[in-house]
Amino acid sequence: MKAKAPASSSAAAANATAASFASLTAKLDYLGASDLEQVRLAYRFADQAHLGQLRNSGEPFITHPIAVAARCAEWKLDAQALMAALLHDALEDCSVTKIELVERFGAPVAELVDGLTKLDKLHFNTREEGQAESFRKMLLAMARDVRVILIKLADRTHNMRTLADTPHEKWSRIASETLDIYAPIAHRLGLNQTYRELQNLAFQYLRPWRYAILSKALTKARSRRRDLIKKVQFEVDTAFANSGMDVRLAGREKTLYSIYKKMEEKHLSFAQVTDIYGFRVLVPSVIDCYTALGILHQLYKPVPGKFKDHIAIGKLNGYQSLHTTLVGPAGINIEFQLRTEAMHMVAESGIAAHWLYKAKQPQAGNSSDWQGSKWLQSLLDIEDETRDAAEFWDHVKVDLFPDAVYVFTPKSQIMALPKGATVVDFAYAIHSNVGDRTLAARINGEQVPLRTEIKNGDVIEIITAPESTPNPAWLGFVRTARARSKIRQHLKTLAQAESEELGEKMLAQALRLEGIEKLPDDTGVNKVLWEKLLRFSGNKNISELFIDLGLGKRIAGIVAKQLLRLLADRGEKPDALLLTRERYSTSEAISQGSVVLDGSENASVKFAPCCRPVPGDGIVGYLGRGEGLIVHASDCAVAQKLKQKEYERFINVEWSDEPTRTFETEVVVTVINGKGVLARVAAALAAAEADITHIDMADEAAQDATDLRFVIAVRNSQQLDTALHNLRRTPSVLKAQRAKIKP
Predict the structure, then answer these.
(1) All structural domains of the chain with their residue ranges
(2) CA atoms within 13 A on the CB side of 34
(3) % the chain with pLDDT above 70
(4) Report for 309-323, 367-381, 611-625: range of highest mean pLDDT
(5) Between 706 and 579, the higher pLDDT residue
(6) I want to staple 435 with a disulfide (CB 3.0 to 4.6 A). Which of 149, 176, 383, 427 is the partner?
(7) Residue 613's pLDDT band (boundaries 50, 70, 90)?
(8) pTM to 2 decimals?
(9) What CATH class has 2-206?
(10) CA nearest 714: which of 726, 723, 701?
(11) Which of the two residues, 53 and 118, has the higher pLDDT score?
(12) CB of 206 within 8 A of CB of 176?
């Protein structure tokens, strides 16, 4: 709310007074001398930083931080909070750095100012109720310290008090934001006085005509009922005096906004709103609340169903009072609220009563009456035990909202996710298609890894690509059930598609070995042929048959022989030349029916962990039962044993000329123990451009030599040879070899 218009000379004296520290000192009498001096230093720094800046009203800008600090002083906040209130616009508007604040005023004050600056950058752009609630929760979640929220509410209150000085076109947006966001936060924290003021001020600027009309009506009603109110006050005072009770009676008038909302929600006219006036009865102890209630019910008849006991069952924000509505003189309904002084402090100042209580706590007498609010006492206990502002705030947050993180989409929509959620969780929360096609992500404009955990207030942008698909590795870090189920669903679908393609290839290969050039199509006369084959295999359709073949649930050779018999039944014979070439070729070359592997295969193809083959190695394919195709090195001892038992489950596989990715394999490096050995070995692998994905070190620290086992990712066997060559030339390395294939 700045402007560059000069202040008039007639207002200069008033401005100078408002801008001086003296206007604040009268409210700081609860501070010690050293704290007061620290606040004074913060004022001087802020005054210098804002020098020459004016508000829209023409006042020096420093009058705003002073007013915010004065409101915080009314809540008896500590010196750090008051300093942050004075400095809260310095980071954003005066080119002051956080480091400078740390050096001058300490890290706690700098963190408070930084927290306020971050909240200032959040803008609420929609009137949608669900989004407003999420925004409120986000503000509370982002504040690491309750004092940040209190200073922010003080800041908003002063801005609303001076909203008339801002351009008219801003009124609606600022008033709406205040009504939807800041007033409910004040209510959530029990700051009822601030809550009512923010509501009324927002109503005044959001609905000026209705505000003016209701204000006039209320003024008239006040003058008409002045005598009635005086009569009730006299009768109540007399009743309490006769009973010997020490009470403090205060009138309470319903706010204009609450009157307006009641008229709107219940479709009432102003004349039909009967509970505009009420009284607040403050008594010494909790027992006195119930005694006073009995006296009032003897004096006036209670309205049935209009009694609420918020002492026995307090509200989450700590509010406690007895509420009763009585039929007063002339049949007018009057509400009475009965509470102790401690309850009143919490009712008006909510969480700020934590500081008020410490400032006003009596040194003697029945302190338990002052501690009537369990909520307030729990706050005081946590503060006394830890002196930790962060823990104090965490304790308060427990009742405010569940563990959640609130973040923005690039279009300013707010999304709530559980704590620990990652960028991928966010992508799936937007839409499953966005999650499935996630390629990269940016948080607050900076590119981040997909496993990055999101934080409150982050603006997250997901970068997608049509060809991108979910990575099975995502299952290792996603937190939400939605993301996990969607990834699994996609991988399952993908695996089925790949298994179907693999199964079709395998059946075609097996049929060629029987002398049939290619699979018959499933049209025309061949439909009957496939129906008979499906009855034999027990599958519902051809697609399911291929998937079962790809997953190893069916043996391609057996299905091919059955298909050959069905073809023979209708007169088709194997091609003798093809049969000879495929079955009895003396060449060791793999037949045309081989499955070609390039690394793009996902769930349908696995590379055996016992031998970890890489391109360049001889390989064989084993069809595990329901596991898909498992690729072994051809000299793998495990594969050799399986071949002896289940030869029919092995198929021909070969490497593609251009694999699409790297493949993991294991090497064992025997080294002499000493400083820097691991670093030298890692450097040798890096020189060969081999990526280390896992290290296993034998527990032999006391011995001269030890084995280091590395799982490394290489493109092919040539790169592996280069890596082993580099390792053997490295000082302290005794031996380097590929891990022996386990039997």
Answers:
(1) 2-206, 217-351, 405-479, 490-655, 663-738
(2) 1
(3) 79
(4) 611-625
(5) 706
(6) 427
(7) very high
(8) 0.52
(9) mainly alpha
(10) 723
(11) 53
(12) yes
- Positions marked active-site: 92-93
pLDDT at 329: 82
> The tokens of 587 are what?
């060449």
Closest CA to 353 of 336, 338, 374: 374
Q: What is the pLDDT of residue 721?
A: 92
Measured N-to-C along each axis, helices 542-550 and 556-569 cross at an angle, to the nearest 10 degrees, of 140
Tokens of 30: 């609860």
Q: How, if at all, do strands 446-448 and 460-464 pair?
A: unpaired
Strand order of the β-sheet with 322-327 is 248-253, 277-283, 333-340, 322-327, 301-309
Quick one: 217-351 is in which CATH superfamily?
Answer: Beta Polymerase, domain 2 (3.30.460.10)
Domain 405-479 top-level CATH class: alpha beta
Tens-place pLDDT, residues 329-364: 877 788 899 988 888 877 776 666 555 555 555 443
> Residue 367 and residue 362: Cα distance in Å, rounded?
7
Q: Check residue 559 and give its pLDDT.
A: 79
CA atoms within 13 A on the CB side of 24: 30
For residue 248, give the H/E element and its range. strand 248-253
Identity of the residue numbered 124: F
Q: Are 705 and 672 in contact (CB under 8 A)?
A: yes
pLDDT, greater one: 150 or 139: 150
Return the pLDDT at 461: 92
Topology adopted by domain 663-738: Alpha-Beta Plaits (3.30.70)
Sheet of 446-448: strands edge to edge? 446-448, 438-443, 460-464
Could you give the C-alpha distances from 235 to 228, 243, 251, 254, 330, in angstroms and in order? 11, 13, 14, 21, 14
Integer Cα distance of 382 and 388 in angstroms: 8
Q: How far apart are CA 342 and CA 337, in angstroms?
A: 14
Q: Between 481-513 and 542-550, two packed helices, what is the crossing angle to 10 degrees?
A: 90
Contact (CB, 8 A) for 518 and 592? no
